Amino acid sequence: MNFKTQREKFRSKSISAKEAVQETIKRAKTDKLNIFINCFESEALSKAEHIDNNFAKFKDQPLSGVPIAHKDIFCTKDLITTCGSRMLKDFKPPYDSTVIDNCNNAGSIMIAKTNMDEFAMGSSNETSFFGPVSNPWSENLVPGGSSGGSAACVAADITCISTGTDTGGSIRQPAALCGITGMKPTYGLVSRWGMIAFCSSMDQAGPFSKDAFGCAALLDAMASYDLKDSTCSKRKKICYEKSLNDNLGNLKIGVIKNIEDLGIHKNILNSYETSKTVLQGLGHELKEIDFSELSSGICSYYVIAPAECSSNLSRFDGVKFGHRSAKQKDISELYMQTRSEGFGDEVKKRILIGTHVLSAGFYDAYYLKAQKVRRNIKNKFEEIFKDVDLIFMPTTLDQAFEKNRESSDPNRMYKEDLLTIPANLAGLPAISFPNGLKNNLPTGGQLVGNYFSESLLLNITNKIQEVTDWHKMTP
Amino acid sequence: MAQNDTLVKGWQPVIGLEVHVQLLTNTKLFSPARNNFGEDANTLVDLIDMGLPGVLPVMNEEAMRQGIKFGLATSAKIAKTMIFDRKNYFYPDLPKGYQITQLHFPIVRDGIVDVDGKKIRIHQAHLEEDAGKSMHDQYDSKSTIDLNRSGVPLLEIVSEPDIRSAAEAVNYLKKIHQIITYLDISDGNMSQGSMRCDANVSIMRPDSKEFGTRAEIKNINSFKFVEKAINFEVKRQIKCLEGGETVEQETRLYDSTKDETRSMRTKEFANDYRYFPCPDLVPINISSELIKDISNNMDELPEEKEQRFRKVYKLDDYEAKVICAERQTANFFEEVSKNCDPKLSAKWIIGEVNALLNKNNISLGNSKITPDNFSSLMAKINDGTISGKIAKEVLEEIWSTGKNAEKIIKSKGLEQISDEAELESITQSVLDNNSRQVEAYKSGKDKLFGFFVGQVMKETQGKANPKSINEILKRLLSG
After folding, report:
1. Substitution target from B29, B144, B278, B280 for chain A, most A beta carbons within 10 A
2. What is the percentage of chain A residues whose pLDDT exceeds 70?
3. Thinking of the domain B420-478, which architecture would CATH place it in?
4. Is B341 exposed, middle or buried (0-12, 13-18, 19+ CB in 10 A)?
5. CB distance A315–B53 less than 8 Å?
6. Cα dist from B444 to A164, A393, B243, whole Å
7. For A361-386, what is each residue's pLDDT tens digit?
8. Distance of residue A358 Cα from the nearest chain B Cα, in angstroms
9. The complex's ipTM?
10. A91 and B53 in contact by Cβ < 8 A?
């Protein structure tokens, strides 16, 4: 059931919020893909009753009566929030993140927290302490990451919307691999308060749904100016759902010259070409643009993100909250044992890299250089957006891949984010939508827009989905 | 001060101070928790101060205003854009594993402080958050942490190595203390840790062009200890160099009970703090309008007050300087001078009041002397009710009871005896009882005049008006 239908059933009182939750939980209980870390059945039922009892108040809210699953990176008051890590296996935050708060106020009911790569570090959902998530299209395959659980949850039709976070592609890549729609908004549109930080200068929360309509409604709920986040931008609130009806006119859409040289699989290129003709069919003009800087983004990202993560994760030291090792004689052993036991290999690797690139004698060569590359990419985007309204490219280099593929070749895993990372470095919004089925597996196309062009991105995706059926395909 | 004055055994000490000042603000630097001292452990702690996963800092503009005030007071450059950085290190009372501070783009740089006519340059002053407090003495095998101090706003004031002696360091510190208390930037209470000091100390030969290797001395929490710690360290370094050893670049801790500094960690074990710009806080622009607004509403600086006191109250340089050394003294003086002779009040404040404060080691604000009871005392001196000698006695009574001078004088019967007839009869009886001395006086021993005055004073328990006694004695003795 898509989002629009689900919400309409509640609004027209054909089902109650409670019934919607009961149905959803029934589906969640049959999950064999390891999508959830914790389910909150009784809390969800009492929240649903509350909404039913206050029908008038919630009826016109953007997410009224709709069950939702949240990535386990958002703090939920008194409910375990693990971030996919042993470190926080039993951690109950004393507060709600702004995203959770906003979604609650918008009338959605959280039924569970979804599985994810540990501290959002990974592109396959295999670094989770709670085990990997399977791709709903094929159990041998990964759903992508880091928001793999949230993407799989929607793709497997358990909920019609879910939240994710995207630091280097963690919404768009799993959306592409699972055949759903997912958006990373402009940095600063959605508050980061209560979202456990990985790379603070790039982390951004966003919506998953089957289609642009669901994403628009969920983004309406998620986006808010928040005094508790200094990087949050103060802007006039836009209703994304309403703006889907706006007339787009004829847009100029940039397509990257020689993109096939980046090592993109022919299935992906094939879908890409097809969706280009759809865009043209909608009356938009395609314009070739030069973006040779694109691939340098990955080097910059894998310096800056680990640098920030090494600092952000320092607070997990066994002193105040989270895991504390039993094997400790003094404070330095407490630190070492706690962090050795609490973090998985991928997280440790990134902490080590991050610590190294910030160290005296290496800072200029790595961190500062990476910031320069980042600025170059940002400038390049700005230049391109003087010329075109949007940029269109594939979301990923390839389709969903097999589990355990990457342990032997970490660089290949990092390269997975080649096409998604540039938007994070520049802080730009981008949306991934299903644009084909090859070998019975979905492919994803990605539109990148200028700052705060979410309504444009959602609108054009919605227009594409009005004339295509890719978003309706189910495993 | 000539440079030679500061040499120690032919060596020139070179000193730079890093002064940490806790700012007077309602809330902490990055959280809405209250900023206060002396409350129950862990009662002033917000989620942000605990460094919980997912929390974010939001800068307190009050703290920024305090920093700007300090910049204005020291004729410094105030940043157009300031940037917060993270200083990364592990410590149990540092909940996030990093301290948010300012490294490359501090709020204030290039200031000047005038210390007894010498200009000492301030390299920079930056905003940062304080850490919590670890305590190791409450349980046998456990340490405890109080996070009330975690996130309290600090201004770290870093001087250039312009200071040349321990005494000069103390004077510089006193000057900083004066500025921050005058402007309500901080309460400057060193015993409560609102003002703390680290000293960078090195020595060199007077003709040398290069500074020696410096040691950083941490944990100096009183004016007295600053002087002692630096003096100890200078002597230690001299001994080192003269004994053919080298001074190591290291961090040393001052132990006030043993009056010595000892090594904490050497350079090779120094932390690599891995500073980088804090991504949770955007660069903050400081507008010239804001600076103007703060400047227009800023309290008077010490020098300005001194100047005004010289002009309005006719104080001399010395009096103005001493009266204005501390803002509460200056305010006290000004309050008292509304009703009393300023010169008389100044004399008494500088002399007797300061003596009592020093003797009892408390501040004026914490004593029982108030502008009210002090004014009453001044009035009684002025109108001749009591003599200076009696006034001292009354002041001591005010000191211990806080009572009004008039009440004290009445209840103790201390009014000066100015009644001519009464005084004459007392004087006459003194002369009658000392006829031998009267004879001697009359035969030329002038010095005995003082003896008669003393005897009359003794008879009247000091209450006789000295002026009247002089006149009466002269008249009776010449008769």
Report:
1. B280
2. 99
3. Orthogonal Bundle (1.10)
4. middle
5. yes
6. 110, 121, 71
7. 999 999 999 999 999 999 999 999 99
8. 5
9. 0.96
10. yes
> H or E element: which one contains A67?
strand A67-71
Task: Let me know if residue A289 belongs to a domain.
Answer: no
Q: pLDDT tens digit string along B179-191?
A: 999 999 999 999 8
How close A307 gets to chain B, by Cα (Å)? 9
Token pair recorded at residue A263: 């090592």
CATH of the domain at A80: 3.90.1300.10
**Residue at A243 is within a domain:** yes
Q: What residues of B are in contact with residue A320 (Cβ under 8 Å)? A: 50-52, 95
Q: Which of A196, A201, A359 minimises the CB distance to B279?
A: A201
Query: Is there a domain that residue A389 lies in?
Result: no
User: Could you tell me how many helices (H) and strands (E) chain A has, helices first?
Assistant: 17, 11
What range defines the domain where residue A102 resides? Answer: 3-251
- The CB-side HSE value for A338 (13 A sphere, CA atoms) comes to 23
- Catalytic site residue A108? no
Cβ neighbours, 10 Å, residue B471: 15
For chain A, what is the domain count? Answer: 1
Where would I find the beta strands (DSSP E) of B278-330? 284-285
Dihedral sign, Cα of residue B440, residue B445, residue B447, residue B450: positive
Q: Minimal Cα distance from A233: which residue of B?
A: B282
Q: How far is B126 from chain A (nearest CA, A)?
A: 20
Are the C-beta atoms of A126 and A132 separated by less than 8 Å? yes
The ranges assigned to domains in chain B are 3-293, 300-412, 420-478
Q: Is residue A325 part of a domain?
A: no
